[in-house]
Amino acid sequence: MPLPFIADVIWKGVPGLPSAWNTLKGILAIAILAVIKWYFAGTANTSERKMHGKVVILTGGTSGIGAATALDLATRGAQLVLLVHQSPKDIFLVDFIDDLRERSGNEMIYAEQVDLSSLHSIRQFATKWIDNIPARRLDMIVLCGSTLTPPGKPRVVTDEGLEETWVVNYLANFHLLSILSPAIRAQPPDRDVRIIFTACSSYIGSPAIEDGSDAMKKKEWSPRKAYARSKLALIIFGHAFQKHLDAYKRPDGAPSNARVIFADPGYCRTPGMRRWLTRGTLWGLALYLVLWQNVWLLLKSSEGGAQSLLYAAMEAALGRGAGGKLIKECREMNFGRHDVKDEKIAKKLWEGSEKLIERVEREEAVKRALQKKEQDELEKTQTPVKEAATKANGGTEGKASKSRRQRKAK
User: Which residue among 231, 300, 325, 328 is the active-site one?
Assistant: First the structure.
């Protein structure tokens, strides 16, 4: 028996094993997939910077690229102030912060409730931050917070009557930095202050922007245009804000030490990308799960997308020279449009944004005043009724107690 088996192995090969050609094809297929995955995974950040003691304000830090960025910065010892939509007492947020502290070994992580879709909420936080003498330490602002409307879904309007994508992706950042500007400029000259904007290549296909009023119009609105327009406005504002910082003359005569940096993370497997690909539908989600292997192969992870932001935060060369640089795949790139640096467009957009914010805040202040007045009047009308009920209850209790004492005395 052994001899015929050995003869078959020698002359016919081991039974059940594929041929050499099939084995070679399998190895070649695996190698091609590995190369594709390596290419789309992006470049890893190799820059290092001491982050211990540095104060970082971060938006969008509870999911996707923002969460990956928050974890890396916290691991390096940065003090994080996360601007979140939820209440700090929210059980899910509490668990997220505890988990982030445990994974990073850093207890200096805090959350502030700031609704990026509410100009009033942003003003409350920003004014509280700058209301401090001397100015609070601020080393970095990382703007990762953004939103989008899935294709085919209707236009979403905030409680203040503004288009949601425009507010969250652009106007919230404009409002936040406009108020925090004095705190940024008041930092000591030896401090390397960076404001990192999360960019997206969709801005290249955006329609032209004047004063931003087109973003408020329902006509010809689409999710794609709304998102692209908001990202273009953010980049235009970032360049204008850099010039605003450079124009400030410090009392000590030192040059500006604050720099705006744009970081494009690329296409990643984030909750926002999933909403876009699935069109916000169950059948889209089912198709997404069926094609998950393609999504995994062609899109970066959140950690991969965070590498360009971390490079922007840590590369020493970006702390010198002019600001307004675009980082993609951990290297400096040129912008895809020339109008992002157009001063006339930037001036129109800045003035239009200021007028819009002023109008909305004035209207919302009137609404809050009327609501407070109605609440006060309601409390006034309810007070006599409560007092009468209290007296009535007190009198009844008094009679009852008296009768009990009388009965006891008898």
Answer: 231
